[in-house]
Write a structure and sequence with these properties.
The protein has eight helices and nine strands. With about 250 residues, the chain is α/β, with parallel strands linked by helices. It has a nine-stranded parallel β-sheet. Helix 3 packs parallel to helix 5 and helix 6 packs parallel to helix 7. The longest helix is centred in the middle third of the chain and has 13 residues.
Length: about 250
């Protein structure tokens, strides 16, 4: 539903109790979403437009923490590291998460949340299988999302998500990504060949790596040579160029 009003949302809650998938686009700033939490069968939720906290979406998500498997947040404002930690801690069935053009505040609280999670030994996003980040998040927020996502099979980051060799190395130390099958990183200017080899050392199920030809010290010819080596030793990996993908 596009441009829903508060009355539209209330009608959905009252008359569509059996709904399992819900998409609300271009929400205005006055809509309140906490009542979505009463939709007991809701598994997939796509929300676009509102402020995360002023819309009370955080309340609705917590009330559906057991059933929700897919969450797509687009053009969302008003989120920070604490909100990410809460989603990762309480949405126990979440398998697919997309953060598209969302605005995350960051700063001192990033490190506070990271230390709080470490102190409590929280394991966040442990059921997550697919993660797509096309938002400008901080390194600590990226690790918050991925550091304990041991079931992750698909990871994709857009141009607005800055990812460096150092950050990827830190991730591999936290999470060996043993179940990862697909990797696409669009912002590659701070990635190098060493990061690729470090990743392949632990992510042994990784089948598809998109765009490695744009990493530092890499090119199309080298990717072709590596693919020949992978085939020779019966390894599952394949380096796929950006040009071969449909954007």
């Amino acid at each position: 539903m596009r441009n829903p009003t508060q009355d539209d949302i209330n009608k959905i809650v009252c008359s569509c109790q059996a709904v399992t998938e819900l998409e609300l686009r271009c929400l205005n700033g006055t809509c309140k979403l906490h009542r979505l939490g009463v939709l007991e069968n809701l598994k997939k939720l796509h929300i676009s437009g509102p402020n995360y906290r002023s819309s009370n979406l955080n309340v609705g998500l917590l009330n559906r923490s057991i059933t929700l498997t897919d969450l797509y947040l687009e053009h969302m404002t008003g989120m920070d590291s604490c909100d990410l930690r809460t989603i990762g801690q309480y949405l126990k069935s979440l398998e697919n998460l997309t953060l598209m053009n969302c605005c995350f505040s960051r700063g001192l609280m990033d490190r506070v949340e990271e230390r709080r999670s470490e102190k409590k030994q929280l394991r966040l996003f442990t059921t997550l299988k697919s993660l797509n980040i096309s938002s400008n998040i901080s390194p600590s927020q990226f690790l918050l999302l991925t550091g304990h996502a041991v079931k992750l099979t698909r990871l994709q980051t857009g141009l607005s998500c800055w990812l460096s060799t150092r950050l990827l190395s830190h991730l591999v130390r936290l999470n060996h990504l043993q179940n990862l099958e697909y990797l696409r990183i669009d912002y590659t200017s701070d990635l190098c060949a060493a990061a690729l080899f470090l990743l392949l050392k632990t992510a042994r199920s990784l089948e598809t790596i998109v765009g490695a030809e744009t990493w530092q010290d890499m090119d199309q010819r080298m990717c072709g040579d590596l693919n020949n080596v992978f085939r020779r030793y019966h390894l599952p990996h394949t380096l796929v160029s950006f040009h071969s993908q449909i954007f």
